[in-house]
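Exercise 7.
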Amino acid sequence: MVLTSLPMAPIPTQPIIKWAGGKTQLLGKILSAIPQHFETYHEPFFGGGAVFFALAAAGRVPRAVLSDMNPDLVNLYRVVRNDADALIAELQDLELRYLSADEHQRSSFYYCIRGQAPEDSLRSAARTIFLNKTCYNGLYRVNRQGRFNVPHGRYANPKICNQPVILAASEALKLAEIKGPEDFSTVVTRARGGDLVYFDPPYHPLSATASFTAYTADDFAWGDQLRLRQTFDELVTQGVTVLLSDSAHPNVIDLYEPKYVVNRVSARRAINSNGQLRGPVTEILVQGRQPPSTQPEVEPQPVLQVV
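Solution. The predicted structure, written as tokens, is:
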């Protein structure tokens, strides 16, 4: 099945961080596969949260449960929801210190912040956003010890504190419980018939050299893909509407076809350590329940990229 796109009104709420595999480009295709009415929205691989923020901006989220395996992300979104003003103040200070420095001083400041491990949740959240806005290509990567290890990005004028975006995200997140860090499979214990679950796991690599699943200290391996398929099945059996995004790897497709509807979609990926590998790629959108055939697809107008 091929999904096409139609324009829709601009979305005021948007992700606050750049995230590999973010779904801003594919929102129209994903939103068109989502039923108009559902009880609770669940997203166990929250990442940048583009789908949730789009649904919230459209007034389509009565309640949400959001989670992730990445402790930095879980902490960040709790702080954004609960203490946005204090976070903005921290980021404004970091932005002033960074932008007023010369190139050498910026690099030293970046590695100083990168080397920290704040125990305070507010400072930790500010560090997460600062590194995301100033690291190389907005990449998030950690080593086996769970330490962020992306080099300095050397942007001329990064927007470290985007106050309107943070405040809009804070209001949207007030609709949500934020769980974790935790494994995706716990969603089975919470979701009920009539709910909606969207899975956006670290993508299965299309080749050995394309592998990138280091968003946490533990990679997302093939065994996790098999567990995810089992979780998908259990949720559908419970009467939950389930959507899943992943790479168009033949092995992944074989996990879901022909039992489920598997749509091929195209997206341009800009986050990759190898610049030659940034470009259009085919991905899949798996539907655990066929949406009404009369439901038209909607596509958001382009929004300004947060950098």
